[in-house]
User: What shape does this take?
Amino acid sequence: MRKPFAITLDPGSSLANHTGTWRTLRPEYVDRLPPCNSACPAGENIQGWLYHAESGDYEAAWRLLTQDNPLPAVMGRVCYHPCETSCNRAQLDSAVGINSVERFLGDEALRQGWKFDAPSAPSGKRVLVVGAGPSGLSAAYHLARLGHAVEIHEAGPVAGGMMRFGIPKYRLPRDVLEAEIRRLLELGVTLKLNAKVANILETMRGGAFDAAFLAVGAHIAKRAYIPAGSAAKVLDALSVLRSMEGEEKPLLGRRVVVYGGGNTALDVARTAKRLGAEDAVIVYRRTREKMPAHDSEVEEALQEGVLIKWLSTIKQAAESSITVEKMVLDAKGNPQPTGELETLAADSVVLALGQDVDLSLLDGVPGLEMRDGTVQVGANMMTGHAGIFAGGDMVPAERTVTVAVGHGKKAARHIDAWLRGAVYAPPPKHEPATFEQINTWYYSDAPKTVRPVLDGVRRQSTFDEVVRGLDESNALYEARRCLSCGNCFECDNCYGVCPDNAVIKLGPGKRFQFNFDYCKGCGICVAECPCGAIKMVPEEI
Ligand SMILES: Cc1cc2nc3c(=O)[nH]c(=O)nc-3n(C[C@H](O)[C@H](O)[C@H](O)COP(=O)(O)OP(=O)(O)OC[C@H]3O[C@@H](n4cnc5c(N)ncnc54)[C@H](O)[C@@H]3O)c2cc1C
Ligand code: SF4
Ligand code: SF4
Ligand code: SF4
Assistant: This one.
């Protein structure tokens, strides 16, 4: 399959020239690690699945993608796509829309009803997974595919964790989430709902489990001391978002103040707007540059009419108003009080100040190390207690769905090895594919596709999905923008430019090899490879 966006040369235009052995350097075909792949917390082989997608084989693309991540339709909606931040194409024009192609593949798989391949032969081992959030689900998926009998114990009434009870519907429609979870469970994973694990060792003993993966997330809302009159309505963000999943929607009033600067604060404020609040005001003690929330979410919230009061803290809450104090940033960038006060009308105050982990299920387990309210794990995701592994929000790491999914995969590989009395050794990493190795002139201009969004009026009044997917032609176009950094895509350039016909073509999918009887080590192939898939190495003497 030729890349339509790469300009290629006619092969075989020079005569063979048997040169003998006066080379000091010889060319070598290499595979390098593209930056997108190394930045994806789930370790997806992005370039590999984009390659299938650009040839129109969406099922092959989806199958390759789901070897690492079982939730592409979810990822294509909620992942903050660090892969795109690292994409080499960003230095040329703009990053490949990896996330939108991932969503297209995820949605296409749901439309077509593609299923995962059956698991390997049963291993005879039983693994307990605690928590059916993204980390637990990912671990269960990978463990089941490796042939282990997996039982998930979930405290709540439905699976999904924060994907269900945190992320609002307008960013992640529930039918998409449910369909991806259902397909995963069809691998033979047992899901026990309303089954909170109170003591991990007892549950493991009771169910004769050989190992456990814990992924209980971080669900205890942090509180701040705010003097509040008895009539003041102070709620926490997680309870508000959770109640959106039930019959009774939260009563927040016409003027809602949200306290905090993370993504949760934005989700609550945007939810309040959709519930009919005239004013949804976020009070945050630092500046926009210092806000932990992702910029795209801040932008979307502002477009929907959410107001943000920067450099402010809440001093006091009363029945229908709050008092805020203006802050300034000191030399170290920390907010300091000014004593300058202001009153804002507020029917309710929602605290979105972060979450702590409920580690009570680990009480009395020997060997564990806790730090800053999280459980410590080694490079193999195992806690200090043999056979108990952990991941996701309950271990020290960035708290995102994709990191949680990556932990689940990594832990599953180590659990699998541990159950066999072995140690999992990840394959050695290829050297990185840098932008400097790309010959950009071979690629045509191709600006990034813009994803369609729901119109402003409907965004403020409904929970319909805001960001829409790409259609097939746009997804195909976007996949073709990939530069195939560091890996041969069979453009035939090396074959065409070699003055000594020293490049042997092995056939579609088999790439090329050098005929060193003819190669004189001129390095033209290296200079003319668009994507840095050939390097010169010292000649062996
Ligand atoms: C409002 C909000 C919006 C977010 N938006 C995004 C986003 O857009 N993109 C993104 O990447 N990340 C987002 N995040 C972060 C992301 O949701 C989390 O990092 C991720 O869900 C963590 O996954 P997890 O599996 O570790 O835990 P969770 O998703 O929290 O799942 C843990 C599960 O364990 C269950 N459980 C807890 N205790 C027990 C027990 N003792 N026994 C049995 N089950 C138990 C819980 O009921 C829950 O289902 C958001 C978070 C919030 C709060
Ligand atoms: S999961 Fe996120 S980081 Fe990984 S490829 Fe998808 S969008 Fe990129
Ligand atoms: S151009 Fe393609 S291979 Fe290179 S970093 Fe971007 S997505 Fe990855
Ligand atoms: S090695 Fe480079 S120049 Fe040769 S076919 Fe592959 S991508 Fe093209």
